[in-house]
Specification:
Length: 169
């Protein structure tokens, strides 16, 4: 038995792993769900340390991801994020979106208000490629789980280098 203390998770026996661990923490007054999934039933100390380092930097990584999301939005016609924003502005009634967007505020574009309201709701880590996942981390963002089940997913490696941004449901 080799216990390792993971941030947000506590002690986990890295020689006898479960397939799935889940925890919740608060970031910018929002609850964020963290999931770690394993394919193998054990990891070495260096992998555990790598996971812990990643967990300790989620706030910083979230800030980096927001910048990447905004850059993707500004990409013009080839923008996953722009498509996501436009879909929601077209599909949902103003009364639903008025919970997060001030349609009477003409000083900031509605689309920019929408972007500013994207919140991190989940971080999923796959440190050993479980389910054939090539991404170390997936960060899921939404405007509100009460309004939509559609997500912007930011995929990254173990150093949070951006691999892709996708629209998921």
């Amino acid at each position: 038995m080799k216990n390792f203390s993971f941030i947000h998770f506590g002690e986990i026996d890295i020689d006898n792993l479960d397939e799935y661990y889940e925890a919740t923490f608060e970031l910018d007054r929002n609850q964020v769900n963290i999931i770690i999934s394993f394919e193998k039933n054990k990891i070495d100390y260096s992998t555990a340390t790598l996971i812990n380092n990643f967990l300790s930097n989620i706030k910083q990584y979230n800030s980096q991801n927001i910048v990447s999301i905004e850059k993707n939005y500004d990409n013009g016609d080839d923008s996953t994020v722009k498509d996501y924003v436009e879909f929601h502005l077209e599909e949902f009634y103003m009364n639903k979106l008025s919970q997060i967007i001030d349609f009477s505020d003409k000083t900031i574009e509605v689309e920019k208000q929408f972007l500013k309201n994207l919140k991190l709701i989940r971080v999923a880590l796959s440190p050993d490629g479980v389910f054939g996942n090539e991404n170390f981390a997936t960060f899921d963002y939404t405007i509100s789980t009460e309004i939509t089940d559609e997500l912007i997913a930011v995929y990254s490696d173990e150093n949070n280098a951006l691999k892709d941004i996708a629209w998921e449901s």
